[in-house]
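Working notes for the structural subgroup meeting. M.R. asked for a predicted model of this chain before we commit to crystallization trials. I am recording the input and output together here so anyone reviewing the notebook later can reproduce the run.

Input as submitted:
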Amino acid sequence: MKKNSIIFLIMTLIFFGCTSGEIKNSQTGETKEEYYILKGINYVREGNYTKALKEYERAYQKNENNIITLKEIARTYVKLGEYDKGIYYYSRALKIDGKDQESLRNTGYIYFLKDDLKKSLTYINKLSPEGLNSETIKLKAYLLYKDKDFKGAYKNFKQILVQEKQLDLIYYKIYAELLNDMGKKEELRIFLEKQLEKYSSERDFIIFYSYAVGEYFGEYAQGEKEIKRYIVSYGGNDSLYMTLAYMIYNQKEYAQAESALKLVSYRERYNKDYLELEERLREKI
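Returned structure, recorded in token form:
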């Protein structure tokens, strides 16, 4: 689930392309080449990637070494799911400017989408400090974590999370796993409690917090307490009821867990997590 969430984020980041203002600033006066690029960008905004590529191809025929054209072609191919072509055109851009931050960053992103985490990290590592935005630093931390470089991952997470001003559960979950794997249990507890102070009214955080204190510290009663507090204050839903039942089940209060599970709506009772917990309860009661 986390990987899918990161993929969605990466796809969003890649498709922040050149603006028409950037193109106009790259040349003096409008040219046919620029005209084709702008038409291509407009087609991309409309979601018509095939027509966009035709316009970019016209611009490419005018000048094969225009780095803006190359990057727009690369980005559009990625949008179409043709990752290898995207890499090819970004590599062409990097032959023109080996330090182009967008090309390095997006090539790293594409290798991540291709599940080649080592190559992804290679390109992300080539970025200058100025080329590392907050999301790229978090991706780098994730890649280092998957590469078992816990110290490097920890350093990058610490760098960005102290600046974090909004909830980011994708990376909170990874950071919590990292702290647990490094044996930094006290730091993990401080992190969870600090975030709880900030996000006590955020449903998804409360679910994350409850699982975290349960799985990492065995404090399922604390998880149950927070879920109940949230439900009383803001109302319940299927995710909250499922979490509540799981917290109670892990305290071996099986009858109460079954009662909590019955609060889940019928439409969610074929959910994998529901069926697994129901089966466990059937064995206990």
